Structures are given as C-alpha cells and as structure tokens.
Amino acid sequence: MVTSDAARMVVIAVTAVLTMGGPDIAVLAVTAVLFGIADAMFMPAAGAMPPRLVEPDRLAALNGMMTFVRRASLMLGAPLGGLLAAGPGPAAAFAFNSATFAVSLVCLLLVRLRPAARRETGTVRRNIGEGLRTVGSTPVLRWWSWGSPARTTSGWRCWRSTAAGARPAWGSC
C-alpha cells in the first residue's frame, strides 16, 4: 500500500507539473494508465488490511467505518476537485490530489500492523486454478467476470459512435 500511494502521489504530482500550461490529452492518457496500475495494487491490499488492524470482533465496525470514509471522500472530493479545476485550473487540482496522497502515505507509515495469521499457500498454478474454478462455479462471479468486459466493450462502441456524430439505435448500447 505504501508503494502504491507513493507511486500515485508521484504520478499525480508529475501530472500537475505537466498540465500547468493546460491539459494535454497524451499526458492525461498516460496518467490514467499509470495511476490505474498503481491503484490496482492498492485496492486489494487495502481490502486485506482490516484483519491486521483490529481484533476479529471489531472487523464489522472497522469495515463500516472504512466504507463511510471512502464514500464521504468521494462525495466531498469530486466537487472539490471540480472547483479546483474550474478555478485555479487542472494543475492545482492535480497538485491538491497529490498532496492528499502524501498525507495518506504518512498515515500508512504510522500504522502498526498485527502479525499476519499463518496460512497454507500453494503453488501459483494451483492458486490460479482454484480461483478460476471458484469464478466458474459461482454464478454471480461468472456473470460479473464475463459480463463486465462485454459491457465495457459495448460502452466503448457506443461512445465511439456518438463521438463520431452517429446516433446509436435505441437500446443498442
């Protein structure tokens, strides 16, 4: 998590510097890819943290608090980012966002974790196979894992056609 927060902080700080003269689509595209990679490492690690932070009987309370904080930060952060981007400009919004990652990084460095529970681990091949079997045998996971790429592809097709000036047929997107 520390590495991910540091990477996100640096990516956004560099973006702030590169967008001082105004946003550039290439810079924003590279930022999105790099940020997405770092973010993809953060979320699973954050999800695995609660058992190492509190006793088992406090997990529900911690999960509730974490969900509240995530939702509140999204609810407050989006309008604040919009105000910063509309006022001082996108570079200021990126700089502020980078500062929030710096604060998060300091907080993470101050956290003291409980020892991890020992568990049996298998080979990478066995673990991947077990994960694929779980996805294949669970209807909701199967629908989500196969349906999500299909929805994304459909959404891209519709966005591309509307961006080109075409009007997709009703219900085709």
Automatic annotation (TrEMBL):
Q: Decide whether keyword Transmembrane helix is in the record.
A: yes
Q: Which membrane topology term applies here?
A: Multi-pass membrane protein
Primary site of residence: membrane
Segments spanning the bilayer are 92-111
Q: Its Gene Ontology molecular function terms?
A: transmembrane transporter activity
Gene Ontology CC annotations of this record:
plasma membrane
- Enumerate the subcellular locations listed in this protein's record, separating them with semicolons: Cell membrane
Per UniProt, the keywords (alphabetical) are: Cell membrane, Membrane, Transmembrane, Transmembrane helix
Keyword Membrane attached: yes
Name of the protein in question: Major facilitator superfamily (MFS) profile domain-containing protein
